[in-house]
Amino acid sequence: MLDTWFEEEYFKGDARRYMPISNREFEKYKNKYCDFSMSVMGDAESAAHEVRRLSCLTSLNLQYIAQLTKDLAYTQRKLE
After folding, report:
1. Among candidates 52, 16, 24, which has minimal Cα distance to 37?
2. Cα–Cα distance, 64 to 2 (Å, whole number)
3. Residue pLDDT, tens place only, 11-22
4. How confident is the model at residue 74 (pLDDT cuts 50, 70, 90)?
5. Distance from chain centroid for Cα 3
6. Predicted confidence band at 38 (pLDDT cuts at 50, 70, 90)?
7. Phi, psi values for residue 69, rounded to 5°
8. d(C-alpha 76, C-alpha 2), whole Å
9. DSSP for 23-78?
10. How much is the CA Rg of the chain, to the nearest whole Å?
11. What is the pTM of this model?
């Protein structure tokens, strides 16, 4: 998709360089956010604790996917 942008190569290069960095930072954020959320729960039963942790991660992933989908649709409209 980056190759189809009507932008200068400089901006495409920046996007290629920063997208992996952004993904790594999102992974860090997601894990820290859910770790904090789990710490607020206290000493819950371990199985329930793990289910809630995974639920937290899934929720953040789904929000991220929704954001990316919206951004992608906007970008594709600009290309038409």
Report:
1. 52
2. 19
3. 888 888 888 999
4. confident
5. 22
6. confident
7. -60, -45
8. 11
9. HHHHHHHHHHHHHHHHHHH-S--HHHHHHHHHHHHHHHHHHHHHHHHHHHHHHHHH
10. 18
11. 0.63
